[in-house]
Amino acid sequence: RSPSRGLGDVYKRxxxxxxxxxxxxxxxxxxxxxxxxxxxxxxxSYGVYLFHQFxxxxxxxxxxxxxxxxxxxxxxxxxxxxxVISVIVGYVLHLTIEKPLINLGHxxxxx
Length: 111
Prior knowledge:
Layout: H1 3-23, H2 28-33, H3 36-64, H4 73-106
Helix pairs in contact: 3-4
């Protein structure tokens, strides 16, 4: 048996466990994974993923005259600012690009 095949079995088991937990709405984990904050971050995650490095690089260079790093309190504050701006950008992208395209896709019937 190859290591990758064994890893695939682990992923299958984890997937089945996740389906079982989410199917039982009253479970603590099921309720936690359905929490509105987690759902919000799920909606904005792709936009955050696409733009966080760009936003981080621009803000660190402009305000701190350095590459992104986390070595002191000033860096920590800038990282928090980058996080907030990245989430806002992700939300705007979700509303202006992702959601309209998803709605457009729902208009088509697939065979």
